């Protein structure tokens, strides 16, 4: 794989760049000389974040691209806009994510946590893969979580019609497991292409995570908050995966505090990773394989 020269002058696309871990990482990457494009679902929030990121980057412009990532039409429109706008794309960070305390459906009729946390990264990545490849060396980083522990992909109940429980935590864990399985299968398909794919756990981080849920869930976060990391600390592994020379030699890994660690046995199941990939193709009808 070609030598990585750091993120300076590279185009970085960050989903979930308006808040929390993604915003902190985008600020740090801009400070290191990257050209940032953030995905926002709300123009005003996007512009507010872009102002912060731009200031950290010494005034270099930051692009705001609008998309609701839970909608496949919106993800496709976003990908088309990116391909139109950027002849080069060296880094894709799939970071946007959420938990939903009650089961909801996306506009495509897909359970919402699955649509946003797993299918959006899958679809966006597969749609941008040729451009990443052509811009190589390139890196794809996906924000997963240790919440994958104890989870299994419910292939016999993929819409979580029977198994949605634990105030959304069980489902959330499944989607974070899906992030790891997606990353390992993606890395396998990308071997030798100059494009790497890794996922990571940011720690327990004090962000806006869970603010979309009811008071009880938010109360839980308020209790955890004093023990949680800052968004800047939570972003450290992401920034390292994007920017460091060392991480350029890694692909298919799951990282915690910049160290490659083994995720659970379910997350190392190559057959499940392949099955998930094929299922995700059906669910998105992406029409292309890596
Ligand atoms: N916080 C933790 O302790 C923790 C631990 C492990 C993993 N994670 C993971 O870290 C990632 C970032 O979360 P965070 O903690 O930084 O939470 P956050 O502060 O709530 O940030 C979530 C980001 O995702 C965006 N987003 C949510 N739904 C979206 C949609 N439908 N379309 C487009 N963007 C959407 C949000 O945009 P808006 O600004 O519009 O809301 C925001 O930018 C997630 O994948 C999460 O699973 C977090």
The CATH superfamily bears the name NAD(P)-binding Rossmann-like Domain
- Percent helix: 40-55%
Please tell me what the overall shape is: globular
**Biggest sheet descriptor:** 8 strands, mixed
Q: Provide the spatial order of strands within the biggest beta sheet.
A: 3-2-1-4-5-6-7-8
Compute the number of structural domains.
1
Find the count of extended strands (DSSP E, 2+ residues): 8
Report the end-to-end length measured between terminal Cα atoms: 18 Å
**Low-pLDDT residue spans:** none
- The number of helical runs is 9
Q: Which fold name is given in CATH as the topology?
A: Rossmann fold
CATH 2nd-level architecture: 3-Layer(aba) Sandwich
Class computed from helices, strands and strand pairing = alpha/beta
On the 0 to 100 scale, the average pLDDT is 94
Strand content: 5-15%
Q: Which molecules other than protein and nucleic acid are bound?
A: NADP nicotinamide-adenine-dinucleotide phosphate
Global Rg: 17 Å
| CATH uppermost class | Alpha Beta
Give the H and E element order. EHEHEHEHEHEHHHEEH
Please outline the helices and strands:
Elements (H helix, E strand, L loop, with lengths): L10 E5 L4 H12 L3 E6 L2 H14 L6 E4 L5 H14 L5 E4 L17 H23 L3 E6 L25 H22 L4 E7 L13 H10 L6 H4 L1 H8 L10 E3 L2 E3 L8 H15 L6
Parallel strand pairs: 1-2, 1-4, 2-3, 4-5, 5-6, 6-7
Antiparallel strand pairs: 7-8
Bound molecules: NADP nicotinamide-adenine-dinucleotide phosphate (NAP).
NADP nicotinamide-adenine-dinucleotide phosphate (NAP) binds next to helix 1.
